Structure formats: structure tokens, C-alpha cells
Amino acid sequence: MNKPLAPNSFRTGPDEQGMFGIFGGRFVAETLMPLILDLQKHWDEAKNDPAFKAELQNLSTHYAGRPSKLYFAEGLTNHLGGAKIYFKREDLNHTGSHKINNCLGQILLAKRMGKKRIIAETGAGQHGVASATVAARFGFPCFVYMGATDVERQKPNVFRMKLLGAEVTAVSSGHGTLKDAMNEALRDWVTNVEDTYYLIGTAAGPHPYPELVREFQSVIGIEARQQILEQEGRLPDVIVAAVGGGSNAIGLFHPFLDDTDVKIVGIEAGGHGLDGIEHCASMSAGKPGVLHGNRTYLLQNADGQIMDGHSISAGLDYPGVGPEHSWLRDTGRVDYVPILDDEALDAFQLTTKVEGIIPALESAHAIAHAVKVAPTMGKDQIMIVNLSGRGDKDVHTVAKMMGMEI
Amino acid sequence: MTTRIDRRMAKLKAEGRPALITYFMGGDPDYDTSLDIMKALPKAGSDIIELGMPFSDPMADGPAIQAAGLRALKNGQTLAKTLKMAQDFRVHDDETPIVMMGYYNPIYIYGVDRFLADAKASGIDGLIVVDLPPEMDEELCIPAVKAGINFIRLATPTTDDQRLPKVLENTSGFVYYVSMTGITGSALADTTKVDAAVKRIKSHTDLPVCVGFGVKTAEQARSIGAYADGVVVGTAIVNAIANVIGPQGRMTANPADAVATLVTGLSQGVRTARLAPAQ
Questions:
Q1: Residue A2's pLDDT is what?
Q2: What family is reported (chain A) (predicted)?
């Protein structure tokens, strides 16, 4: 693939057609096309409406608990003996992950559009829980699609969603993971066009979803940038986040994209390794294709059939990625590297022991990169890792991997 | 330039009856059986064939067509083989129009130019690509039209009068009106509403308007065919195939015969659609 020319700014996309270079777009059935055009119209109005911003700001502060802290992870830093590591504490948000940032924004859009019913897909269940939460708060019925495999490995979150009043449908097609959940959510949407708002959980899907999800998640990077300037008096040398669909990552990255001295690294799920098919590293091992409304890097075979992939982390178990990441990869602004299941598990346990923080397995992939890289960096260098969620939901999976019954 | 679709539609118009358009999944349950099914369709009274291209993630399809696609893929079907199926069919039938229907990614990966050249050479007349709305016309629609292949667009209940001209702009062959919002294989919508929708589309275009999604029986084909230029049947055919495939892939009857029986009945429906008021 030819490398596109570096633009003057990396922060101006997408264009009016919803494209980031060749990525993105609106690859949807005609039935849905008028709906996403309507969404775009309301989004364009909302993003310039001070009242919308003020309501979101108020909820972010008093309901979600923002700003989230930028925490100097002294235990991990001392253990690794290199760069200073900071955690952006999205795990401390209401519902336990960054997903609430996007859900609050989109539920206000749904309300503004007069929709009556919320649907969502979920992988690890973090987005499903955040969707069910905002639906409960604003009085919407909520229907969550979740792969059957994920329902099994993320039981605590399934129960949380049900407590919050959501109806959870287990999807058994494919491997029963996030891809299949998204197909089923799209089928619901195409059937219930009149009253339904599709609350997509990641910065992917047809335009304008990648843009609006990024805007709602950019609060992570905006805060982190300001906090590191306050705490260290300078920008970090490296920022790191895990990438499944890529919403926590684009949220952290976007405000730093034009800070060219800041190295940006996205971590893909390396699963059992990139030699086989048991991974979800779409940008390291896939090629561009069209799925779920956008063109982006996908794991696929030579006939263009989408592969299921594998990751120990349900939130990263997706064969595609948000289109802006694909563009940032090809322009070279962001490096995307894989971390294996085992490396993520080690980082999960290490963080628990030396920091007293149980990270989500998704976030543990980002921490695993810090474990590899921080020791090679100077003690005066600074790294920010996005701790996108807390790991309570993953204790069953981890116990199983450690050969324990709980 | 006229295609087989244009010629067939003109002929049926002269005969005063609607077209029966039959969908099946290429390679379901396997290549040879599927080719037999394809050959059986015109003999049983199908006027236009929709040849399904299997895709791993068919977002607009219901359980029946999802399962058919997976059966085909599991037995080794690829886009190249689906093109070959059309080529094999053309050896004995150079008249029946073939429309390939599916999703964009396999075509994108095959390469648009290479696909159009091979499709043309294989005797393909039209394309229906579910996830390419007019906003994405540069991808495949415009190159297809240039290559002499009809690009058939879906119009839906959500396509209002303001949007219809955009949807119809580069459409040729016929317009495929999706009778309801939803996935393939759902229940048929209220036929009076469908009638009104067909009239609405016809006020914007001279192209034939064919109706699909939810048509399963000869009676439904007859009542839709009373005012539409064509009736599309898909899920019922796919189900007829699934019904004779045992759990271990052991067939309890010949799938091509099962399809022929169903299609013969449906063709009676369209052939009597204009004889008397449908009721």
C-alpha cells in the first residue's frame, strides 16, 4: 500500500462523504441510508449547540464523575525501572470504563431526535452496561445484542445489563462475538427504522458514527493533555491505548495527533500470535475491505469473507477497526502493534500486584506494551497508558486461564 | 444499449404479465446441486434469475439466507466459482437474464475492474449490491454501467419522494422495491401499501418496478403481480432447498425438483395475475 502524503493536520477528518482517505464511508443498505443522513443532520446541529454541550458537560461531571484522574503509576514505574508511567483512569468512571462518555453523548442525541427505543451491540459488555445505564437514566427501553460466546465469558456484565432493565439477546451466528452482535443489531435497526436509535459503541460503522463517537471520547485526550501539562509541565513522550474497534484509543489519540513529538501507539489483540488466525490484529495482519458500513482494515480470506479472529479479551475480539485508525496507520502517524493473550494476562496480574488496580483485559494489552517498552526508555521520559476500564468483569476469564475455579 | 434484462422485460410487457424473479444462493448446498437448481429455474417458469453471492456477514438477510450462504461457503463456494456457475449455465441458456446479488466486500477484494470483466464474460446482466447506496456510486455502480451491466437499486419504504430521484439516477434494468423495512424472509407487508409504493416509484421512472421481500406463495405472487412489473421470491426458494437437506447433508429429495415444484406454482401465480382482479 502506498503511504498517503502526510496532511497539514491529522485532526480535520473525515471529509463530507465521511472518508478518512480511502477509509470510512457509508456502505449501508438503502433502508438505513435516510436514517444515517437524518442522524448526521441532528449531529451537525447538536455539536454546534451550546445547550447540548452544557447538558453533556453537566452529566459528565456529576453523573459520570469526570474529569477522570491522570495517575502516576509509581509502583509499576519503579518495578519496570524506566519511563514514568501515568494511567488515564477511565476505569474510575461511572459504569467502570470509557464507554459512558460516548453513551451519554449519544443518548442526548437520541432524545433530541425524538427516538423511543435504544439498541446496542456489545463485546465485553462494557458498552452494553453503559448503554443500559443511560437508557435507564433517560427512560428508554434498551435492547442489547451480544455474541453467545461473550455472554458466557462476561456473565457479570450480562447480569448488570438485566438489572438495569435491558433485554440482552445472545447471538449465536459466527463465533458468537462482537462482529455477530453488530450484524444482529444492524438487522434490528433495518427492521425498526421508525423509532429506534442505534447506539454504536465504537468509533466504527457508517459515517457519521466514527466522527461522533470520536468527539464524545476525545474528552479523554483533552483532559490527559491538560493534566500532564499541569503535573509534568510538558507533553508525554509516548501515549498508548488498546484498539478493538478503537474508541478509547481514538479518544486519547485525537487531541495529540498534531503534537508531532508525541509518539502514539495503538495495541491490537495478538491473541495466540500473528502466524495463525487466532488473533484480532486487523491492521497488523489484515487488509482493507468493507464491513459494517465502512471501509477499513479487516481480517479476511482471499475471497473477501470475514474471519472471526480470537482474543482473550472480548472487547478486542473484532476482525475490523474504526476507519480513522486505518488512515492513521497508513499515514504513519500512529504505530499499531500486537500484544499476545499471555502478555496481556501477565500485565493484568502485575498491575494488580504492584498498583492495587485490577485493569480490564483490554487495558491490560496497553499496559503490556508499557511493560515491554518502559524499561528501554530513560527515567526522565513520560508515557501515558489509557486504563480504559476496570477488570472486575474479567476475573472469571483470568481465573480460568490460571486454572482456578471461583 | 439493451441487456437481456431490458429485452426480457419488454417481451413480458408485450405479453401483459409480470416477471417472476427467483433468487437462490450460488453454491448452496454445493456447486453441482446449485447448478442443477439454476438450470431448473427457467424450465419451471422463472423469467429472471438472481444468483446469490455468499458472504460471511449478510447484514440485511434473515436466518434462511444467512444459513444458505454459510452452507455454500462451507462447501467451498467463492466469488470466482459463482461466476463460473453463470458461465456453465450460459452454455445451454443464452436468454434468461442473470442478476448477481450480494454484498460489496468479496467484489472489492476480487477487484472491481477484474470482476466486471469476468462478470461480463460469464454472461451476467445485472448486479444488486445491498451495501452500496447511491452515495457510494463511484465504487461499483458507475464502472458497472460503463461495462454494460445493469446496476439494480433497491428502493425501500424509507426512500421518500425527495430521495427517490437520487436512488433512481444511475439505476437500470429494473427497480427492486423492498416491500418493508426489515431483513429478507420476514412477513409480507400490507399489499395495498405496496401497491401505493409501486405507483409512487412509477411516477418517478419509466423503469419496470419489481417487488420483493416477503413473497412466499403463488397467491401472494399473483396479488403483487397484479400491479408490479415483477415479483421477486428468495427466502421461500432457499427454504425449499434447506427442507430437503438432512442434518448431515444427506438429501431427502432432489433439491432441484423441490425448487422446480415451488417455482412452477409461483409462475402460475404471475401468469394469472392480470387475468382477474387479485382476490
A1: 58
A2: Belongs to the TrpB family.
Beta bridge partners of A265: A240, A335
Kindly report the nearest CA distance between residue B277 and chain A, in angstroms.
31
Instruction: Name residues whose C-beta falls within 8 Å of residue A351's C-beta, 6 or more positions apart in sequence.
Output: A76, A357, A358, A359, A364, A367
A41 contact B CB<8A: no
* Catalytic-residue membership of B50: yes
Q: Cα separation of A384 and B71, whole Å?
A: 47
Instruction: Give yes or no for residue B278 having a pLDDT over 50.
Output: no
Q: Do A303 and B156 touch (CB under 8 A)?
A: no
**Using one digit for the tens of pLDDT, what is the confidence trace for A236-292?**
999 999 999 999 999 999 999 999 999 999 999 999 999 989 999 999 999 999 999
pLDDT digits (tens, 9 = 90+) for A49-94: 999 999 999 999 999 999 999 999 999 999 999 999 999 999 999 9
CA dihedral of A272, A276, A277, A280, whole degrees rounded to 10? 50
Give the Cα separation of A174 and A163 in Å (integer): 28
Q: Which residues in chain A are contacts of B107 at CB distance < 8 A?
A: 304
List of chain A residues whose C-beta atoms are within 8 Å of the C-beta of residue B159: 30, 33-34
Taking the C-alpha atoms of residue A118 and residue A140, their distance in angstroms, rounded to an integer, is: 7
**Residue of A27, A193, A306 to mutate, interface with B, max B Cβ within 10 Å:** A27
- Compute the distance between CA of residue B238 and CA of residue B250 in angstroms, rounded to an integer: 17
Residue B101, Cβ density class (10 Å: 0-12 exposed, 13-18 middle, ≥19 buried): buried
Please give the domain boundaries of chain B with CATH numbers for all domains: 4-271 (3.20.20.70)
